[in-house]
């Protein structure tokens, strides 16, 4: 198309948006989305909305729907620099579904939003592959999503991801603060690494202050820095659901931004206090590396990073042995990290005591 002056006219492609590339990306991702389907999934990828058969909820006496949404923060910058894009979606699923399971909800379905500066079909498909694989691990269906091309807002190699999920829990099985009692045990479930929080601090210390390359072999880590920083976030949802089904659980806390104390405090009732003993575990080396290299105060480190604990289960004393055995069978390292006591006047909801092992 040309204008009256004979010059080429404006077009969406000339403005930086490639519709054909977007269509190619959708075709490439379809096989991965298909792997996530549950029996309740309806339709195929490509509609204007995702469909899920809600008649399955008839099996509940009083179903409560739970919803959560999240992203992965600046961890995407590591994926972009390494040109590895098939794990960041796994992180996205973990950050969303592990928030849902805190109340005891089973994740049912998820949608994603991928915003790119320029559509590279294979890259978008790789991101969706990671999301789909994460959904399989979480037991939820990926029912749809959106890929948006924003030239001028993001660079050609830049992108961001976000997602939302819906789950369901029986009303009388709802977990939370009202179930917690004095004498309950605080069980820590090991993190797989940094997970997807605090990367702005980690990048500032290791990449900017130290000037380390992501390809650098780090003896303390036993692998390259990039491999450590891209380690996918552990997905706990099916493990937590199994624990709540086969044992007795009073509450969960997903340890994300705000650290262990800040997130555990969110589920502690008035009048009760959780005392966590640092001496019950040794944080993986990456946490000490960030703290020592950046001269980060321990309080700041604990407020920003998970320090090796990605999820906490609060259980009654009689359920401790069974809970630890079940988690061990499922391959989740876990240990008793503290207990719940009566809260004295002036006490915080949660305290971390002692030094790390």
Q: Beta-sheet strand percentage?
A: 15-25%
- CATH superfamily label of the largest domain: PurM-like C-terminal domain
Write out the strand line-up for the largest beta sheet, numbering strands in chain order: 10-12-7-13-11-14
Helix-and-strand structural type: alpha+beta
- Tell me the quaternary state: single chain
Provide the succession of SSEs: HEEEHHEHEEEHEEHHEHEHHEHEE
Q: Return the CATH architecture of the largest domain.
A: Alpha-Beta Complex
Helix proportion: 25-40%
Subcellular location: Cytoplasm
Family: Belongs to the AIR synthase family.
GO biological process, one term: adenine biosynthetic process
GO molecular function, one term: phosphoribosylformylglycinamidine cyclo-ligase activity
How is the topology of this model organized?
Layout: H1 19-34, E1 41-42, E2 51-52, E3 63-71, H2 75-82, H3 88-100, E4 106-116, H4 121-138, E5 141-149, E6 159-170, E7 185-190, H5 199-209, E8 217-218, E9 223-224, H6 225-229, H7 237-246, E10 251-254, H8 259-264, E11 272-277, H9 285-294, H10 298-304, E12 309-315, H11 320-329, E13 334-342, E14 350-353
Parallel strand pairs: 4-5, 11-14
Antiparallel strand pairs: 1-2, 3-6, 4-6, 7-12, 7-13, 8-9, 10-12, 11-13
Helix pairs in contact: 1-4, 3-4
């Amino acid at each position: 198309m040309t204008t009256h002056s004979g010059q080429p006219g404006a077009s969406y492609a000339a403005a930086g948006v490639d519709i054909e590339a977007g269509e190619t990306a959708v075709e490439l991702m379809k096989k991965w989305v298909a792997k996530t389907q549950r029996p309740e999934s309806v339709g195929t990828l490509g509609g204007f909305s995702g469909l899920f058969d809600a008649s399955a909820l008839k099996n509940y006496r009083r179903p409560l729907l739970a919803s959560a949404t999240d992203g992965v923060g600046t961890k995407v910058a590591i994926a972009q620099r390494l040109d590895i894009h098939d794990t960041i979606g796994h992180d996205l699923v973990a950050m969303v579904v592990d928030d849902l399971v805190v109340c005891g909800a089973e994740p049912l379905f998820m949608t994603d939003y991928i915003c790119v500066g320029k559509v590279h079909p294979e890259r978008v498909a790789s991101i969706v592959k990671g999301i789909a694989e994460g959904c399989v691990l979480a037991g939820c269906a990926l029912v749809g999503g959106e890929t948006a091309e924003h030239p001028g807002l993001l660079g050609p190699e830049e992108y961001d991801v976000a997602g939302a999920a819906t789950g369901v829990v029986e009303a009388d099985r709802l977990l939370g603060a009202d179930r917690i009692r004095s004498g309950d045990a605080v069980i820590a479930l090991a993190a797989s690494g940094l997970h997807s929080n605090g990367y702005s601090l980690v990048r500032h210390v290791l990449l900017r202050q130290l000037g380390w390359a992501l390809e650098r072999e780090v003896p303390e880590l036993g692998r390259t820095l990039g491999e450590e920083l891209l380690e996918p976030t552990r997905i706990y949802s099916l493990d937590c659901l199994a624990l709540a089904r086969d044992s007795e659980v009073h509450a969960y806390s997903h340890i994300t931004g705000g650290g262990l104390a800040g997130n555990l405090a969110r589920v502690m009732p008035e009048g009760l206090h959780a005392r966590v003993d640092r001496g019950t575990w040794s944080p993986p080396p990456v946490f000490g590396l960030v703290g020592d290299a950046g001269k980060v105060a321990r309080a700041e480190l604990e407020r920003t990073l998970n320090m090796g604990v990605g999820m906490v289960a609060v259980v009654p004393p009689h359920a401790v042995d069974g809970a630890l055995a079940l988690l061990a069978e499922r391959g989740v390292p876990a240990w008793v990290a503290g207990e719940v006591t009566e809260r004295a006047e002036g006490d915080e909801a949660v305290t971390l005591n002692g030094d790390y092992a």
